[in-house]
Amino acid sequence: MDGKVKGLIKRHAEDEYPNECCGILLGHKDEKTIAEIISADNVDTDSESNIHYTIDPLILYRIEQESEKRGLDVIGFYHSHIDYPAVLSKEDERYMIPGCIYAIASVDDEKCNELRLYYKDSFDEDYKDVTDTDYIKWR
Amino acid sequence: MKIYISATLRGFFGRHDKVELEGNTVRSLLKTLTDEYPDGREALYNDDGKLREFIQIYVDDEKFTTEDKWDEDITANRELLLIPSIAGGAPTESLISDERRKEVSFDDAEIERFNKHLMLREIGVKGQKRIKAARVVIIGAGALGSPVIQYLAAAGIGEIKVVDFDEVNLGNLQSQVIHGKRDIGRPKTASAKDTIKGINPKLTIEVDNIKVDAENIMEVIAGYDVVVDCTDNYKARYVIGDACALAKIPLVFGAIYQYEGQVGIFNLDDGPCYRCQFPSPPPTGLVPTCAEGGAISPLPGIIGSIQANEVLKLIIGIGENLSGKLLTVDSLYLHSNILKVHKNDNCPICGKKASIFEVEDYDYEDFCGLREEEEEIPIEGIEPEELAERIERGDKMTIVDIREPHERAIHRFPDVVVIPIGQLARRQKELDPEIDTIFICKQGKRSILAIKTLREAGYKGPLYNLKGGIDGAKDIIFSHEGAWL
Question: Which of B315, B337, B367 is the last residue of a domain?
Answer without folding.
Answer: B367
